[in-house]
């Protein structure tokens, strides 16, 4: 099944119009990250909510995060927004440290007190990606009040998502704007394998790239719709 992202995004728009202004989705500023390396395939979308609502985050892991692979006794994988894009040849070390514009530092944060966490410490605030037998994790979504989409030091744009295994960086992908006005093949600008953080095309095949984008958009539509209805 192939869905045009423009269609899906109009669903998002319709959902936001019918609900409270307080939590309207700013569809034009959605950011995405597609990770595809070391057998780990994961898709992330970050949809801004108006009026300082932060972001609705949508995550889907297609493969790679198996129980067998997980080192940590918790059976989980940490993941964060890091300050820099992915380096040449999928170099996750080049992404630098965690996004931390508030200089919270590496002090142990807890999900119960997310303001003690670095803005980029997504697993600290929302829990680790839990390993499964198959390595795929069904789509999940949550609201993050801290993620920002603007400001030179605060925006998540142009940065990266890094997945860790007991601290070790095992996969990463750039965060890029998800352009609703283009067709799926051209709107998909992120490529974790692109050198020096350049955004090019999503995977190599446009149809599979379009499918990923459509699936992601559908996920966000559902997630945002669910979040809006929950208010
Ligand atoms: C996991 O990380 C902890 C903390 O850095 C370390 O002490 C431990 O040896 C690691 N476990 C494995 C199996 O690598
Ligand atoms: Cu990290």
UniProtKB/TrEMBL annotation:
Residues 57-167 form the Superoxide dismutase copper/zinc binding domain. Keywords: Signal. Transmembrane segments: none annotated. InterPro entries: Cu-only_SOD, SOD-like_Cu/Zn_dom_sf, SOD_Cu_Zn_dom. GO terms for molecular function: metal ion binding. Gene3D superfamilies: Superoxide dismutase, copper/zinc binding domain (2.60.40.200). Residues 181-208 are annotated as: Disordered. Residues 1-21 form the signal peptide. Residues 181-190 have a biased composition (Polar residues). Pfam families: Sod_Cu. GO terms for biological process: superoxide metabolic process. This is Superoxide dismutase copper/zinc binding domain-containing protein. It comes from Linnemannia elongata AG-77.
């Amino acid at each position: 099944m192939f869905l045009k992202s423009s269609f899906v995004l109009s669903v998002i728009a319709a959902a936001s119009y019918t609900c409270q202004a307080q939590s309207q989705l700013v569809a034009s500023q959605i950011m995405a990250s597609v990770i595809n390396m070391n057998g780990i395939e994961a898709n992330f979308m970050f949809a801004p909510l108006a009026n300082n609502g932060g972001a609705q985050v949508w995550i889907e892991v297609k493969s790679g995060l198996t129980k067998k692979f997980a080192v940590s006794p918790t059976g989980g994988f940490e993941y964060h927004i890091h300050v820099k894009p992915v380096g040449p040849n999928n170099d996750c070390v080049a992404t630098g440290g965690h996004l931390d514009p508030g200089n919270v530092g590496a002090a142990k944060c807890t999900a119960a007190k997310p303001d003690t966490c670095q803005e980029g410490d997504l697993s600290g605030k929302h829990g680790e990606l839990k390993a499964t037998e198959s390595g795929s994790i069904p789509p999940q979504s949550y609201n993050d009040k801290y993620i920002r989409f603007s400001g030179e030091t605060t925006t998540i744009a142009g940065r990266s998502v890094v997945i860790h295994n007991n601290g070790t960086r095992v996969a990463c992908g750039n965060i890029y704007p998800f352009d609703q006005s283009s067709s799926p093949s051209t709107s998909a600008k992120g490529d974790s394998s692109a050198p020096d953080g350049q955004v090019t095309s999503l995977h190599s095949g446009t149809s599979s790239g379009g499918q990923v984008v459509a699936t992601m958009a559908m996920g966000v539509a559902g997630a945002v719709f669910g979040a809006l209805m929950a208010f």
